[in-house]
Structures are given as structure tokens and as C-alpha cells.
TrEMBL record:
Listed transmembrane segments: none
Protein name: tRNA (adenine(58)-N(1))-methyltransferase non-catalytic subunit TRM6
Biased composition (Basic and acidic residues): 315-332, 339-352
GO cellular component: nucleus; tRNA (m1A) methyltransferase complex
Family: Belongs to the TRM6/GCD10 family.
UniProt keyword terms in alphabetical order: Nucleus, Signal, tRNA processing
UniProt feature, compositional bias: Polar residues: 356-368
Provenance organism: Frankliniella fusca
Length: 499
């Protein structure tokens, strides 16, 4: 039985290796370039990392030279080889499937054909292992493989053969996790990015779990050629990445945010192509609504109001910047007004003093001077070069002229004012989704939307998810689980009937 389970585990490892080899062979090979994000997999542990030349990455206490993966295809497996003189410093060496098969720790269980019936007579007093800690560390410093180290530990253990079969497997799994010396470079996907961010810190992504994230594109009725609006604050761009991942080159995503810069950690981790970057439009919510309101209120068929949204930034640096700049602007405002009036008064004075017609030669000289002045780019009438945020605002306004196909809101603030401001920007018979980590603000918004004549099919849902550990003769849920993955408020905008 022990050999059969060890063989099954080895087959799973081999199928995993064959799978990423075949995926790398299919189509064009995706190679790792400097500046790209990669996912480093070590058994069931995943880490997101940005590759740089001569860069390193920490995996626990181990330091790896990750620059050697540049130019190599993804789904490549590497073996950790210890550097000379470096205790926990490793360099990566590309290996094959046969190397992974020969050094599999699970095959060490084949050398032990005996097992006990119970563990009642085993006392965990720390004296069962004959090797000292210094001797175990020296085995690793000598460059021994993980299989050899685990085999040596089993040979010098006085209680391993008397343990039950389940205890032996648990012991091998623990040692395999500690001494496993292979990593796999994977391409970042939305699922991996969401799981890594959720595992590191749930608070940074507003408790957005992968099962809830997967329901958002479905609830908003995402299709590849559509135009969508995402308002997000506090999720590191995860919802925007979920929608952008499902859009084609013809689709457009207007990423509305607070503050000066959007949170794009998840978007950058996707290694966006130039086509995806062109489909993404990042714009500040205040600039967008002001631009729409200043151009014409007839764009959306109704007036866009800013009463429900206070123009305050959540970034402390932005708050300090506003506190420093606003007094200076108040002091310089009279001086700026005088400067704008002074040239006109000076020109009038000059015209009164020199009240004589210009000759033809003077007119030609003045025209030449104006032409040179305009060609040099210093003409007062020439258009100033727009900044990036102005260009993005113009792109967002032109995109929303025909109205969007859906709206997604995921913010730490109360979503009521945000939804009221952005709901007129989507077309009738289009869906909207509001995500919240707690249900009380969504319940208040639900009561408001029920009374509106332009909204129907409003629903508030949550998802119950439980992970189970399924193995032979035992199945039980995991001990550490999240109580909730957040709540989704969904609805459909309709054209209200004129009474």
C-alpha cells in the first residue's frame, strides 16, 4: 500500500511535469524577459516576482539567483545548486523530467516495507534521531540531494519503522516540503495572482476571494468587444485585471479611480501586451465627471451630479500636498489676475502713444516676427501640450459618448454616491455589480435602488466556499478557512417609463 501511494504521488509529479512541457511546446514559446513578472512555484507554494538581470529572490531562508531564467521559456523546471562559499545561496540549473524522477523524495518510502499498527508506544522526546543538528546541516552543505538526506534521516531514526503507515507518509511529506530542491517558473495568470494576493494579505485586496472574483465578469455580462467601467479603491487593480483579461483588442475598459494614480499591481503582474494597454483607460473620477458635465449634459440624457462625492484623496501624501499648495495658490491668485490684465493695458497705452498707421515695411516685419514666433512654439495662441491625465480623460469621455456596457464598483467607501454618479454612464439593459466586504452598506444601497424606477432585478448575494482535504480513507475540511469572501450587489439598468 505504501509503495502504491508513493507511485501515485510520483505519477502526479510526472504528469505535472509533462503538462507544463507540453504547454510550453504548444504554439509559440513564451520566454521570460527582463522586467516581466513570473510566478515561482515550489510544491504548493507560489510567489510573484519581477525579474531583473543579476537579481535575487528569497524563498524562505534560501536566496536564489533568478536572473538566469531570462531568455528561457516558462514552465521550465530548475534545480537548486548551492554556490561555493554560500550557505543558503543557490543558483538555478535547468533539469529534465528524469532528474525529477530520480530525486523524488516520495520514492524513499519504497525502502521501508514495514510499518507499525499504532503509535501509542512512541514517545516524542527528541531522542529518536541519532544525527545531531550539525550533522544534518553538513549533509545539506555537502550538496547532497533531497532524496539522500531524507534516506539518511530515515536510517538513523529509531521510531520511523514502528510508526503507522499514515505517520510515515506525514513524516515524508514534511521532509519533502523542507528539502525539496526544485522550482518551476510559471506564467502569471489571473487565478494565480488572485490566490497569491489573498494568501499574502487579505486586507490589501479588500477580502476579495477567487470565487467571488470569478463571479464579477459573469454578473456584469462581460463580452470581448464591450466597453466597461470599473471604479476601484483598495483592491490593487484586481477587479480591473479580471475584466481586462476577458477583453479583446476592440474592447475598452475605463478604470476610474481616486487620487492621482490608480492601483495597478494586479494589472502589471499580468504582463499586459501593447494591445491590452491600449484597451485600458485610467482616469480620475472627479476629472471624468467634470469633463462630462462641462462638455454637455446631454451625453448621458441626464445631469451628472458631484454632490454625493467629496473630492478627498485617501493617500496621505496627496492630503499633505494639497495642504501645502492651497495657501500658496490663494496668495498667488491676485498676482496672476494682475499679470493676465497687464499685457492688455500695456498694449492700449502703446496704441495711444503711437497712434500712427504702420507702413508696408513695418507690416511685413511684424508678420515675419509673428511667423517665426509661432514656428518656434512660443505663440500665445498655440495649443499647449496636454498632460497624460488630460489625454486619458479625453479618451474616456470619447469612449463613454456611446455609453458603456457594464459597471463594476469595488471600493472601501460607501458605494451609494459612486453608483449614483456612474450609473447614468451605462446604457439601458446593462448590468452593474457592486462588491463589498461587509453587507451593511450594500443593504442600505439595496433599499435605495429598490425605489428607483430605472433599476430592476436587484439582488444581494454571498458565496459559501469550503476547502476539503481528500485522501485515501480520510476526508475533512481544512482547519484554516475564511468565513466570507465578500458580498455582491447586482442589478440591471432599464429605461424608466414616462408616466
Amino acid at each position: 500500500m505504501a509503495r502504491a501511494r508513493a507511485a501515485d504521488r510520483l505519477n502526479a509529479v510526472l504528469m505535472f511535469s509533462v503538462g507544463f512541457k507540453l504547454s510550453a511546446m504548444a504554439g509559440a514559446l513564451d520566454t521570460v524577459k527582463a522586467g516581466d513578472y513570473i510566478v515561482i512555484q515550489r510544491q504548493d507554494y507560489f510567489k510573484l516576482h519581477k525579474v531583473s538581470e543579476n537579481g535575487t529572490v528569497n524563498l524562505g531562508k534560501d536566496i536564489l539567483d533568478i536572473g538566469s531564467v531570462i531568455g528561457k521559456p516558462v514552465w521550465t523546471t530548475y534545480r537548486l545548486e548551492q554556490k561555493k562559499g554560500g550557505r543558503r545561496n543557490y543558483q538555478l540549473k535547468e533539469c529534465s523530467i528524469t532528474d525529477l524522477k530520480d530525486d523524488s523524495i516520495t520514492m524513499s518510502n519504497n525502502s521501508t516495507s514495514t510499518s507499525g499498527t499504532d503509535n501509542r508506544n512512541i514517545v516524542d522526546d527528541g531522542s529518536s534521531q541519532k544525527l545531531s543538528m550539525e550533522e544534518i546541516v553538513s549533509l545539506r552543505e555537502e550538496g547532497r540531494s533531497s532524496k539522500e538526506i531524507v534516506g539518511t534521516l530515515i536510517e538513523n531514526s529509531t521510531t520511523f519503522h514502528s510508526k503507522t503507515e499514515y505517520s510515515q507518509q506525514k513524516y515524508l511529506k514534511k521532509k519533502e516540503k523542507k528539502y525539496f530542491e526544485y522550482i518551476t517558473i510559471r506564467k502569471p495568470t489571473l487565478r494565480l495572482i488572485a490566490e497569491i494576493m489573498f494568501r499574502l494579505d487579505q486586507g490589501k485586496i479588500f477580502g476579495l476571494r477567487i470565487d467571488t472574483l470569478s463571479q464579477i465578469p459573469t454578473a456584469v455580462n462581460l463580452h470581448a468587444h464591450g466597453k466597461y467601467i470599473v471604479f476601484e479603491s483598495g483592491c490593487q487593480g484586481l477587479t480591473a485585471a479580471a475584466l481586462l483579461n476577458g477583453l479583446s483588442n476592440e474592447g475598452r475598459l475605463v478604470y476610474v479611480h481616486l487620487g492621482n494614480y490608480p492601483s495597478k499591481q494586479a494589472l502589471l503582474a499580468l504582463n499586459m501586451t501593447p494591445e491590452q494597454e491600449n484597451s485600458l483607460i485610467c482616469v480620475n473620477i472627479y476629472n471624468l465627471l467634470r469633463k462630462l458635465k462641462s462638455e454637455c449634459n446631454g451625453i448621458t440624457g441626464e445631469e451628472i451630479k458631484l454632490e454625493g462625492i467629496q473630492e478627498t484623496s485617501t493617500d496621505p501624501k496627496d492630503i499633505e500636498l494639497k495642504q501645502e499648495i492651497s495657501p500658496k495658490e490663494k496668495e498667488l491668485q491676485p498676482a496672476l489676475e494682475e499679470e493676465s490684465v497687464k499685457p492688455e493695458t500695456d498694449n492700449k497705452k502703446g496704441a495711444d502713444e503711437n497712434d500712427q498707421p504702420l507702413t508696408s515695411s513695418d507690416q511685413e516685419n511684424s508678420c515675419q516676427n509673428k511667423r517665426k514666433h509661432s514656428e518656434s512654439g512660443n505663440d500665445d495662441g498655440s495649443a499647449k501640450k496636454k498632460s497624460r491625465w488630460e489625454v486619458e480623460t479625453d479618451r474616456a469621455v470619447s469612449t463613454l459618448h456611446a455609453k458603456a456596457d457594464g459597471l463594476v464598483i469595488a471600493c472601501r467607501e460607501h458605494p451609494s454616491s459612486v453608483l449614483k454618479a456612474l450609473l447614468p454612464l451605462i446604457a439601458p439593459s446593462r448590468n452593474f455589480v457592486v462588491y463589498g466586504q461587509v453587507r451593511e452598506p450594500l443593504l442600505e444601497l439595496l433599499q435605495e435602488l429598490i425605489k428607483r424606477p430605472d433599476v430592476t432585478n436587484v439582488r444581494l448575494t454571498d458565496t459559501w466556499l469550503r476547502h476539503y482535504q481528500v485522501e485515501s480513507n480520510r476526508t475533512h475540511p481544512l482547519v484554516n478557512m475564511t468565513g466570507s469572501g465578500g458580498y455582491l450587489l447586482t442589478g440591471v439598468k432599464v429605461q424608466p417609463k414616462d408616466f
